[in-house]
Amino acid sequence: MLQKNSIYSIEIEDMGHTGEGVGRIEGFTVFVEGGIPGDYLKIKLKTLKKNYGIGRIIQMLKPSEDRISPPCSLANTCGGCQIMHMDYGAQLAIKGKRVKEILERIGKIETTIHPTIGMENPYEYRNKAQFPVGILKGKAILGFYKKSSHDIVATDYCHIQAPINKEVIEVIKNYIETYKISVYDEKSKKGLIRHVVTKVGFATGEVMVVMITNGKELPLKNRLVEMLQKKVKGLKSVVQNINDKNTNVIFGKETLTIYGEDKIVDYIGDLKFHISAQSFFQVNPMQTKVLYEKALDYAGLTGEENVFDIYCGIGTISLFLAKKAKKVIGVEVVEAAIKDAKENARINDINNTEFYVGEAEVVIPELYEKGLKADVVVVDPPRKGCEEKVLETIVKMNPKRVVYVSCNPASLARDLAYLEGKGYKTVEVQPVDMFPHTAHVECVVGICRENT
Ligand code: SAH
Fold first, then answer.
1. 77 in a structural domain
2. pLDDT (tens digit, 9 = 90+) per residue, 106-125?
3. Residue 256 and residue 291 in one domain
4. How far is the CA of 61 from the centre of ligand 1 (A)?
């Protein structure tokens, strides 16, 4: 029987879903934050529950061969990159292994799982940064929240963000300090600047800076714009968003353009997208292209098909498919996203798409009742996966192929098991690393009707 607060040695054998190390002591599962497979550690058992324990590293007995010194000095304190202390090749391998294990264990799915597609340069890949702003020892800081806390870890350069953020951070700190601009304090609810959000078009170099303020008055905003213009190459848009609510949600309701456009432009492949302060856009545009090309490949379109893109967001996948399909119907619950999807279709001269707002589990059965047919269905649901009603209706529509894009292997496994029980076969799974140095893994899955 293990004892809480006792010291044990443990070999880390696996990685949990938030990047923590997993090992066993006397057959009992113990999670160890910061441990990676292959590490031998001395730990203190901080928590002991019925089915598992949580240990804290007190000594590294023998480091894993995959352990590296992370390039970022904040890797251990910042909540952003959970596995930066692991060699990148090993990160890709363990993500693939997790997908395989989860599909087998939860879904009883035996299929081909291709090696995870990683990035050639797995740094500076994010096109959107959200920096909370604070004050430390009288100086302005921008940074990220510490793991499970609202303490800010100050940063001047984040290794996974677009490099232009370095200039933005410098200018904002300078502006706050030079003009004694107040900074929002979560406890007293006083002070002006809450967050700075940046968006970068990787293909165009266009930059948007969003100042999120507790109140309407942004002092010397023209001066701020001049300072940004001087340092930030590609600056296309400076926007103020007002959030005077006591909330963890970053954006408020009102958005004002204080310089340039209210949007920037980016491309994925040859498709053009308008990105505004609050619109959703995939954060790793290079890997998004890889993922969508796989989805297009698995859809196997000839130009004759009616395609459904369920959970379509701003229509990125729909537009990718539209060029090769007869017609694409996109369904999404967020109204603003559907507005963007229509606008994106228009600016790309794509005329064979239709978009519907609503919950997929309501809209898809309605469209089926109206007699709409699907030859191919693509789904890209949120973490919890598809509602059973959606899967049930897909099966009724009897498409010859289903393409499943998933950010959560556990719900994917459950949904694949459902489809396999209804005459579909999981042909192949392609994990794609959309978020290097984090524990996330995205998969695109090719599924075929068996009696074709
Ligand atoms: N395919 C898009 C976005 C996928 S993210 C892309 O690649 O960019 C999942 C999307 O599902 C989100 O846009 C979310 O708003 C939407 N969503 C969540 N629950 C939904 C539901 N019940 N019905 C329809 N859409 C839903």
1. no
2. 999 999 999 999 999 999 99
3. no
4. 45
